[in-house]
Amino acid sequence: MIELSLNGQALQVADGYTVAAALCLGGDGNSRTSVGGQRRAPLCGMGVCQECRVSIDGQRRLACQTLCRPGMRVETRA
Amino acid sequence: MTRDFDLLIIGAGPAGMAAALAAAPSGARIALIDDNPAPGGQIWRDGVQAQLPAGARRYRQALAAATNVQLFHSTRVVAVAGPRQLLLEDEAGAWRARYAKLILCTGARELLLPFPGWTLTGVTGAGGLQALIKGGVPVAGERLVVAGSGPLLLASAASAKKAGARLQCIAEQAPLAALTSFALQLPRWPGKLLQAAQLFDHQYRADSHVLAALGSERLEGVRLSQGGKIREIPCERLACGFGLIPNTQLGQALGCRIADQAIAVDDWQACSRDGHYAAGECTGFGGSELALVEGAIAGHAAVGEQDQVRALWPQRRRWQAFADQLARRFALAPRLRQLAAADTLVCRCEDVSYGEIAGRSDWVDAKLHSRCGMGACQGRVCGGAAEFLFGWPAPAPRTPLSPARIDSLVQLAEANEAD
């Protein structure tokens, strides 16, 4: 198992899961807040739409194309 | 850092893998670039909940064994950095790839059309849901509606059912007569007939399309038009996609000619620019079989093996005929242009509504007045939608071609100054 943090909460997932999966397993599935204030979740699943962008260790990354790694800090508040 | 290659291939889906393997015996130094963590593209996407077909495993093993093919995963193209030179970005940072020949295998994305509620959590693309499930997104026990158009709906529904979703309906917009004609043609491609028989589901409905996704914070149900009648179905997930559109941005940025929304190629899969080739869905939607043979043709052509190319032409014709059937039978009904309401968001990056852009004269006019298409996806979603809704040609790509780190842009600026 891999341990990472999602919005400050510890989360364990099995090896090979994407961050997009972790958002569902450890939270409400949402990845970001839109400019109009709506919560959004991954849409295209293939790195095109940018809806799944999250902050990972301070860098903006796409949750659907990023695999979970030990110690990752994932934030979905921005 | 700059790396030199004889042959650079962008995209490691079926077309890119086939291109690399066709060119590999020539001994050329080959690089295969892909933005996903593993090769396979969309149809052969690997993941914790993916079951790779035998063909996909064979291609991956052959690639791993080809010592002159280097795979760069989790790497995306940021910009054209000079003549025969691209700026790429991976987790560690930016680097430049110089090439003698280039093959574009940039695939396709889903056509996602706006309808009321489509921004709710729980609504995804059809292929989108399949990709997310492969990566481990849990759907067990969730009620699912699949909607839109094309054979991908059946494939997506099958993946979701395997992962434990409870399928409520597959709503295909094409009329029954078109689907029947398509099915009657399938014996020409026995493998496809078998695939269709395996994937078919008794919840499949022709002449049906989504009207609205219902819910406040997240999806609670879907309103469908089914053969002209309104039907509401409670569900936690809606997977909706209206077919595929070729990813032409990099081709456009390189100056390759575009025709019919795809990168134009000749019999050799060569683009209008010398030394540049394209294969697979970026040259027009056709499925993985066509992508494999086009990729192989491009790979052989790029290393000058003309006899091998000619030998593959009959195979390409056979699968092109299948692609033509797909395009004809799953053509989108004009009524789908009426799905969005005035307050339905079209541009999800900048939250621009249908009402804000509907009266505009073209894409540039819409952009200038609303910021439509100026967000992180650079119009890849709303530009495709606007092309269908209003007939506006796709926006020309701008640098950076994908969101990039400041460090990468600094590198690009330095490269430009050095030139």
From TrEMBL, chain A:
Pfam families: Fer2_4 (PF13510). Keywords: Oxidoreductase. The keyword Oxidoreductase applies. InterPro entries: 2Fe-2S-bd_N (IPR042204), 2Fe-2S_ferredoxin-like_sf (IPR036010). It comes from the Bacteria. SUPFAM superfamilies: 2Fe-2S ferredoxin-like (SSF54292). This is (2Fe-2S)-binding protein.
TrEMBL record, chain B:
The keyword Oxidoreductase applies. InterPro entries: BFD-like_2Fe2S-bd_dom_sf, FAD/NAD-bd_sf, FAD/NAD-binding_dom, Metab_Enz_Cyan_OpOx_G3PDH, Opine_Oxase_asu/HCN_bsu. Residues 5-291 form the FAD/NAD(P)-binding domain. It holds the Pfam family Pyr_redox_2. Keywords: Oxidoreductase. It comes from the Bacteria. This is FAD-dependent oxidoreductase. It comes from Pseudomonas zhanjiangensis.
